[in-house]
Amino acid sequence: MIFDFITTNKEILENPIIKGFFSMEEHAHLLQNSEKEPDYNISLLNERFKNYYTNVKRINYMSKLIRGIAIDYDKKSRKYSNRFILTDSFNNDEPSMEHTDLSLSDNLDSLITNRNLLKAIKSLTPKQINILEMYFIHSKNNLEIAEYYNTTPQNVSQIRKKTIKKLQNSISKGGKE
């Protein structure tokens, strides 16, 4: 009877879940003993398979969940590092830039460790450097910077974004050389 079951259901027994189930010695033993006490062993085998299948589904769900969370974390991490490319390049052991009398353009060598970034910043106009300094170092918002330059916050935002894009392009070109 068992031999007939195995030969007629070869395709089913090749299924990875079924293979995994019967690879456990206890389950294979229950299948072999199903001839002696068919009702008890088959119902026990069915119950064990339901538990096994439920566990496989849980593990599958958890691994997909963990993978999805890891992908989301990686996306957020890359987004953060791309968004704050300038702040990641400053030395953390340097004194804070609380004093407004310190100018970014005067202290570039001591603040920035990335040589490509330093070279790219030196190619900016004084206004671009000042806007970045006010925004990133002195934590001024677009409105405050706009009032200083007597322009609109939208213009300040546009200048800042174009400047950052210019820096990113310069850094990526400098790193490939």
Automatic annotation (TrEMBL):
Pfam families: Sigma70_r4. One of its GO terms (biological process) is DNA-templated transcription initiation. Gene3D superfamilies: 1.20.140.160. It comes from the Bacteria. Residues 120-168 form the RNA polymerase sigma-70 region domain. InterPro entries: RNA_pol_sigma-70_dom (IPR014284), RNA_pol_sigma70_r4 (IPR007630), RNA_pol_sigma_r3/r4-like (IPR013324). SUPFAM superfamilies: Sigma3 and sigma4 domains of RNA polymerase sigma factors. One of its GO terms (molecular function) is DNA-binding transcription factor activity. This is RNA polymerase sigma-70 region 4 domain-containing protein. It comes from Heyndrickxia shackletonii.
